[in-house]
Amino acid sequence: MTTLTPVLTGNWDLPDSFTLGGYGEYEAAKRALGMDPDAIIQIVKDSGLRGRGGAGFPTGMKWGFIPQNDGKAHYLVVNADESEPGTCKDIPLMMANPHSLVEGVIITSYAIRANYAFIYVRGEVLHVIRRVQAAVREAYEKGYLGANIFGSGYDLELVVHSGAGAYICGEETALLDSLEGYRGQPRLKPPFPAVAGLYASPTVVNNVESVASVPSIVANGADWFAGMGTEKSKGFGIFSLSGHVTRPGQYEAPLGITLRELLDMAGGIREGHELKFWTPGGSSTPIFTAEHLDVPLDFESVGAKGSMLGTRALQIFDETTCVVRAVLRWTEFYAHESCGKCTPCREGTYWLKQVLKRLEKGQGTEDDLATITDIADNILGRSFCALGDGATSPIHSSVKYFRDEYLKHFEIGGCPFDRAASTVWGSK
Question: Which EC number(s) does the record attach to this protein (predicted)?
Fold first, then answer.
């Protein structure tokens, strides 16, 4: 496969891509507002669009969970709190093509019969917040937001809300608590947001890329979208290549493409080096090695090999990287970002960090490998949200694939990768 599918990224090279003039006149939204809302939900169901935020839940099905004629306000909340280590697709999308998101918000809100929508953006990315605010302002000025949009009788108010920079607020219920003005912590489910979400009302929480994909589906049809990708993972997605790759960046391609194909388009691993390990979907997904180069990057194939497609954040590491140190850095992040609500995550991530520090310095023992996997086992499936589960992924997978590298730290009493490059253990 050598063909990319530039849909969301199709206008990124234009100097005015982020303006209404560079984007277009919201033709998909005009068409959608002339349709029955249930018909739009059905189109999205037929397209096979699955959540692009990591979980991969069918988007149209999530919309269909919203109860109708219940006398309550309905809300759409766009999760733009992108903060997974290695994930960098939503931020450039909002910078280069924010109007695709705004148009998607209009269509999605109309489909779920919501008159209020929120875009929750990570607070540190001030430049992105300003870019999205400018796009929303342009849409209001053209009459694409507000009262009686396109003369359809449909009203929609859209608010851009900046978070305070907490990874936990990427979890949908913690995001809702933060949006309501409370400390961001995950809620006990059920009830799910579709029944009792924002302000205890039916709410749909979708990822930026999921919502931004909707206008192209309405414009081109469900069959067009379903014609790309694989049987169960349909459509296209943005694959973010970072790390030790010749041309890192965003590659929009059909689901089911392989890392080998993406690397061919990205110029391969940096010159003079070879692939050691990589993440298929950010740091919270179990790592892969060179033996997984030809695994189709779709939800089913990646899952069958023991990992998760996640956010398609492909972090590439060559043979100069110490896997123990990389896992320690990720674990330090999760320990720092744990909200502290549940004991397994709060205590487990802390102790994982302490033991990994000792292991990385070569001061541990082989028994410590059993300790960290035992701690990870006690976190997995026992925390309020997926942060705890995600923190265990690099632990289990690194011990599985690189146990010898952990043992080498004990043997030499330190990290073998701290020595001169010419004597790096495993590089020859």
Answer: 7.1.1.-
Do the beta carbons of residue 195 and residue 162 sit within 8 Å?
no
**Can you give the pTM of this predicted structure?**
0.94
With b for 16 or more beta-carbon neighbours within 10 A and e for fewer, the 9-28 pattern comes to bebbeeeebbebeebeebeb
Tokens 């302002």 map to which residue? Answer: 137
Model pLDDT for residues 287-301, shown as the tens digit of each residue: 999 999 999 999 999
DSSP state of 139: H
Average pLDDT over residues 164-181: 94
DSSP characters for 356-407?
A: HHHHHTT---HHHHHHHHHHHHHHTT-SSSHHHHHHHHHHHHHHHHHHHHHH
Domains for the chain: give ranges and CATH numbers. Answer: 20-221 (3.40.50.11540), 236-318 (3.10.20.600), 323-423 (1.20.1440.230)
Residue 423 in this model has a pLDDT that exceeds 90: no
Q: What whole-number distance in Å separates Cα of residue 243 and Cα of residue 209?
A: 22
Give the whole-angstrom CA distance, residue 77 versus residue 280.
26
- Residue written as tokens 């009203």? 155
- In this structure, the strands spanning 203-207 and 75-80 are parallel
The span from the CA of 26 to the CA of 104, in Å, is 9
Cβ pair 156, 109 in contact under 8 A: yes
Other C-beta atoms lying within 10 Å of the C-beta of residue 391: 29
pLDDT band at 148 (very low <50, low <70, confident <90, very high): very high
Q: What is the rounded CA–CA span in Å between residue 332 and residue 356?
A: 9
Token pair, residue 351, equals 């102790």
pLDDT at 421: 38
Euclidean distance between CA atoms 240 and 230, whole angstroms: 19
3-state secondary structure (DSSP) of residue 326: helix
- How many beta carbons lie within 10 A of that of residue 264, not counting itself? 12
pLDDT tens-digit readout, 1-47: 458 999 999 999 999 999 999 999 999 999 999 999 999 999 999 99
Tokens linked to 285: 């997904």
The pLDDT value given to residue 295? 97
- Which of 206, 94, 105 is closest to 154 using CA atoms? 105
